[in-house]
Amino acid sequence: MIGSRLAEKIVVVTGGASGLGYVSCQHFSEEGATVICVDLEETVARDAANSFPGEAVGLAADVTDEKSMNRVAQSVLERFGRIDALFANAGVAGEGSAHSISFDAWRKVLSVNLDGVFLTARAFLPMMIAQQYGSIILQSSMAGLKGMENLASYSAAKAGVIGLTRQIAIEYAEDNIRCNAICPGTIVTPLVRQAYRERHGEKEAEAALSRRSQQYPMKRLGDPRDVSSYAVYLASDESNWVTGTSLAIDGGLNARM
Ligand SMILES: NC(=O)c1ccc[n+]([C@@H]2O[C@H](COP(=O)([O-])OP(=O)(O)OC[C@H]3O[C@@H](n4cnc5c(N)ncnc54)[C@H](O)[C@@H]3O)[C@@H](O)[C@H]2O)c1
Question: What is the DSSP letter of 219?
């Protein structure tokens, strides 16, 4: 443990075994939180949990499965008695334009990136309402704020997450439950590598990422810690009067015409 900004907090993260979710779990743990790392496969979730510095548990669940998410919430309630912060982070990449994307491909992205976020939040809301406290963090994207070529389903899902953020924020504000969205720009993770391989081919992917970095005003891509630092703030009491927001973490990209 390095800090104590999340001392004694119980924090649940979906998609916690890879990329931004993994680094966020690690960061929460360094700040003293007990972390429940949820991901698709039990051994992967457990291995991730075992690698964090503080107390951590790995649970298997598919965010698109209502029963599975309700089971996770029940198990957190039985084991810890409460939840302080929830990071609905699990997501998948999805390429395709509106005229050409198949309905199956569209639904797959919407089901993980929007339904999954909704099911995750809904599973934990009753607990937060009962305890009259909680911080919900929803993982959106720059693609939820701005249009991007070839990302019809991904962009629609991430914009939907921003709408859901506002809804939860205003409907549960009197229950002392906060809800905020994070909108990261490009950060190299397995998801982004896959998207760039699909878009540019295996050989060109690295060069395309390097070109992409030059489009950012700060001339670099993001680091997972750029996102996890903000997630720590939102999970902590430092952000006690912050709700309904969607913050771009993008090295200035959103500020440019
Ligand atoms: N990396 C970026 O540049 C970037 C930018 C903006 C937003 N995001 C968002 O951040 C989130 C994390 O992305 P990442 O880049 O770390 O990706 P990643 O692929 O490294 O991690 C995603 C994790 O989610 C898990 N997951 C996928 N489907 C799941 C399901 N149905 N149920 C439970 N877990 C599931 C995966 O197993 C994986 O561990 C996603 O929502 C993504 O859309 C990423």
Answer: S
Q: Ligand 1 test: best mutation among 12, 13, 14, 20, most atoms within 8 Å of CB?
A: 20
Q: Is 154 a catalytic site residue?
A: yes
Distance 104 CA to ligand 1 centre (A): 19
- List pLDDT tens digits, range 41-76: 999 999 999 999 999 999 999 999 999 999 999 999
Predicted TM-score (pTM) of the model is: 0.98
Is the minimum distance from the CB of 42 to ligand 1 under 6 angstroms?
A: no
Domain span(s) for CATH 3.40.50.720 in the chain = 10-185+223-248
What's the CA gap between 103 and 155, in Å, rounded?
15
Rounded to a whole number, what is the distance in angstroms from the first to the last CA of the chain?
42
pLDDT above 80: residue 1: no
Ligand 1 pocket check for 64: Cβ under 6 Å: yes
- The yes/no answer on whether domain 10-185+223-248 falls in CATH 3.90.1720.10 is no
Nearest partner of 56 among 12, 121, 19, 18, judged by Cα: 12
pLDDT tens by residue, 148-188: 999 999 999 999 999 999 999 999 999 999 999 999 999 99
